[in-house]
Write a structure and sequence with these properties.
single chain; Jelly Rolls; 7-stranded antiparallel beta sheet; 3-stranded antiparallel beta sheet
Length: 192
């Protein structure tokens, strides 16, 4: 039997990131060492994206990344953001890792789930561009369990985060051809 996802599985929060945090994130992402070719997808016509690993060296072992984040020389400031989000929205979550994704025109992400059926978890996606025109597209799109219908689409917006059930199928649409910049997000992956 397929699962029915509701609005309760996807929470959009505007102004979740302070201006100071936004500035620090922009500085780090603009100086980040991006690698191309993620996720590895062997499907025909796959369009891999840009990726930058931040923390999660013990993700496979299901170990918390809190300490790794707090001591990170460039990204440690995100500990304050993570503590705030965790306390209010997911107090029992264990942070497994954080990474940045970047997309330009034509780089659609595949429809995927962040958590296996056997593991409960939430994901936080933070939109990181300091400016994003609505006409540039780049929506974060959520689908029903069969991946046949869109149940919600979230437009990128500075300071906006989306907290969602890791079982909900989703994908990131690429920016439009008129967009002259990299669509940047941070993803915080958790298990409960």
């Amino acid at each position: 039997m397929s699962r029915v996802f509701t609005e309760a599985d996807i929470c959009v929060i505007d102004d979740a990131v302070t201006e100071e945090e936004q500035q620090q994130i922009a500085e780090q992402l603009n100086s980040a060492i991006w690698r191309f070719g993620w996720p590895v997808n062997h499907a025909p016509f796959a369009r891999p994206c840009w990726h930058s690993f931040i923390v999660g060296s013990q993700r496979v072992e299901r170990q918390s990344s809190d300490g790794e984040l707090a001591s990170h020389p460039q990204w440690g400031f995100l500990s304050t953001f993570w503590d705030r989000v965790k306390r209010v929205h997911m107090p029992s979550a264990t942070l497994l890792g954080i990474y940045a994704n970047g997309q330009t025109f034509g780089q659609e992400s595949p429809i995927h789930r962040d958590n296996k059926a056997s593991e409960k978890g939430l994901t936080v996606v933070m939109f990181c561009n300091e400016h994003w025109a609505t006409s540039w597209g780049g929506e974060l799109v959520f689908y029903d369990d069969q991946k046949e219908n869109i149940i919600k689409a979230v437009q990128p917006k500075p300071g906006r985060i989306v907290i969602f059930n890791g079982h909900v199928p989703h994908s990131a649409r690429s920016p439009s051809a008129s967009c002259d910049r990299l669509r940047m997000t941070l993803a915080f992956k958790t298990i409960i």
